[in-house]
Amino acid sequence: MAIFACWGVGEFFEAIQLTTPISDNRVYAYNQPHLYHLARLDEQYPRYAAVLTDMNTARIFVFGLDHVIGAEAVNGKKVHRVKVGGWSQARYQRRVGNAHLEHAKDVIERLAQIVREDKITHIILAGDSVVIPLLEEQLPRDLVSMVQVIKLDIHASEQDVLTATLAKLQGQEARTGAEKVERLMQQYRGRGLAVAGPQETLEALAKGQVEELLISGTLEETHPLPEEVEAILAPEIPDSEGGTKSEEPRQASVPDLLVTKAKQTGATVTFIEEGSLLESIGGVGAFLRWRE
């Protein structure tokens, strides 16, 4: 579970039960929420939609944080058989084709509604190899880039669907992450819209320049914050004796500060689970919105 609390004026306490596996327990007392591990869990177990379908029925699932958030069925129109041969058979085949097309349209229409309502960014299609192309043909343009396809038994259990689709999603995210790191390094070496290393990235975050933060999933959890960066990120405030003091502790967690600043400035956070990919630049880099 994650617990958020504060004391004094406007006392606040909220506990959130998590369904994802947690490797170990941690307790933090700080003047702002600790987001690094929560953000990483959210990326490892994202919210996504999965469609398992044949020619007549479809099950649409919404998964998130390693459990089922919602599930519903979409049933197509059944077509009764007629005697084989002649015009009757031709009409029957046309009716079957039309029924399958209508079923595909109904499934995609409902899927599009779920994507909008639940703010889904990933979709996995699975099931009958004949109906999947029909579904892909009906996809709105804005959903095409979200879709991946896998083979899965139409009668698979809810847990089997979750296990198979999550594995597919995480595998794709790993490949995408590697591609992003390669593009980041090209941009950085070419003096493009990218920065690399903890200090440059923190400075860019402080200025609101970062579009997407790439951070190693194996980055040391507690890391002394460089003093020159701390001065930028922790503005000094007057103390009771007329001097100044920092709003932040002297020993801050760099990974958490990176993620928190990214969330505060609307930057996307992408965790790179293969630590060696970002090792040469200190485990962190970022794509920029603009450069000074």
What are the SSEs and their pairings?
Blueprint: E1 2-6, E2 12-16, H1 36-44, E3 48-53, E4 57-64, E5 67-75, H2 86-118, E6 123-127, H3 131-138, H4 141-144, E7 147-150, H5 158-189, E8 194-196, H6 198-206, E9 210-216, H7 227-233, E10 236-238, E11 244-246, H8 254-264, E12 268-272, E13 284-288
Parallel strand pairs: 3-6, 6-7, 9-12
Antiparallel strand pairs: 1-2, 3-4, 4-5, 8-13, 9-13, 10-11
Helix pairs in contact: 2-3, 6-7, 6-8
- What does the main sheet amount to? 5 strands, mixed
CATH topology of the largest domain: Nucleotidyltransferase, domain 5
Fraction in helix: 25-40%
Q: Distance between termini? A: 42 Å
The gross shape turns out to be: globular
Tally of individual domains: 2
Q: Which key phrases capture this entry?
A:
single chain, 292 residues, alpha/beta, Nucleotidyltransferase, domain 5, 60s Ribosomal Protein L30, Chain: A, 2 domains, five-stranded mixed β-sheet, four-stranded mixed β-sheet, globular
Question: Can you describe what's shown?
Answer:
The protein has eight helices and 13 strands. The chain has 292 residues and is an alpha/beta fold. The strands form four sheets. Strands 5-4-3-6-7 form a five-stranded mixed β-sheet, with helices on both faces. A four-stranded mixed β-sheet has the order 8-13-9-12, sandwiched between helices. Strands 1-2 form a two-stranded antiparallel sheet. α2 packs across α3 (131-138), α6 packs parallel to α7 and α6 (198-206) runs parallel beside α8 (254-264). The longest helix is centred in the middle third of the chain and has 33 residues, at 86-118. The radius of gyration is 25 Å and the shape is globular. The model is unreliable at 229-251 (pLDDT under 50).
